Amino acid sequence: MKALRTVMVIAAMAAATLASPYAAAHASLKSSNPAAGATVDAAPNEVALTFSEKVEPAFSSITVTDGQGKTVATDKAKPDTANPAILRLTVPALASGTYTVNWAVAGHDGHRRKGDFKFTVK
């Protein structure tokens, strides 16, 4: 009985050790263009977000709103063809002002993460 308990404890510890990298493997935002908090001289024609892993396009989105909360881009965000960890959204010509980027993504594990940041166009 004691040997069975020891084997079960060792098996549980091994399973937890092997599974731990997957438990923490949620897609997280690594960088953005324009950068969070940036003030840019020229309005960008797209917002590009780079994540720590490939994102699932069906469960991922980017919205850009102006200072009054009005959505300025109506297209759907698309993954970069060369790097599926990058999500891109084409935006129309942006006037001077502050814009908020809201994003939501799901990685390979299906866990959904979201966040937001602002940038300013001079």
TrEMBL record:
It holds the Pfam family CopC. Keywords: Copper, Metal-binding, Periplasm, Signal. Residues 26-121 form the CopC domain. SUPFAM superfamilies: E set domains. Gene3D superfamilies: 2.60.40.1220. One of its GO terms (cellular component) is periplasmic space. It comes from the Bacteria. It is found in: Periplasm. GO terms for molecular function: copper ion binding. Its main location: periplasm. GO terms for biological process: copper ion transport; response to copper ion. InterPro entries: CopC-like (IPR047685), CopC/D (IPR032694), CopC_dom (IPR007348), Cu-Rt/internalin_Ig-like (IPR014755), Ig_E-set (IPR014756). Residues 1-27 form the signal peptide. Belongs to the CopC family. NCBIfam families: copper_CopC. This is Copper homeostasis periplasmic binding protein CopC. It comes from Rugamonas fusca.
